[in-house]
Write a structure and sequence with these properties.
alpha+beta, about 140 residues, Fructose-1,6-Bisphosphatase, Chain A, domain 1, two-stranded antiparallel ribbon
């Protein structure tokens, strides 16, 4: 069985970096620019501000977590809803299944109505049978 004890440190660092980049974008960009619709899919509307955090999420998890143990990253903004990292690894080889929302509360955050949140839950990879009850580590970070 995989040991999740090493995961909190890199996941917190990933959250801190995403928060910093999103706050910086909110301070430096016009609200209209951040609220432009980047994609209007079946599951949800993806805004320009989401694109900032989505690309960062994938890169940081690949560098800081998947470089040590393969993962399946599951998030709304990803093609097909998930990606196996490091790139080229097979899903069945993944040790962890990471469910992430790099900006929960996008609309309220981009209109400066309330904070948003970076949410991550990590469970042992049990393929499509992985459920929320399998989560062994959960991290939530406020984006003010």
């Amino acid at each position: 069985m995989a040991d999740p004890s090493w995961l909190p440190e890199p996941v917190r660092a990933i959250h801190e970096e995403i928060r910093s980049v999103v706050v910086h974008a909110c301070e430096r960009s016009a609200q209209k620019q951040l609220s432009e619709i980047a994609e209007d899919g079946a599951g949800d509307t993806i805004y320009a501000i989401d694109r900032i955090s989505d690309s960062l999420l994938t890169r940081l998890f690949e560098e800081r977590v998947a470089s040590r143990e393969p993962i399946v990253l599951v998030a709304e903004g990803l093609p097909d809803g998930n990606i196996t990292l490091p790139r080229g690894a097979r899903e069945r080889e993944a040790v962890w299944r990471v469910l992430a929302d790099p900006i929960d509360g996008t609309r309220c955050l981009m209109y400066q109505k309330r904070s948003g949140w970076i949410l991550t839950g990590i469970a042992p990879n049990r393929g499509e049978g992985t459920v929320l009850a399998d989560i062994e580590l959960a991290v939530q970070t406020e984006i003010p």
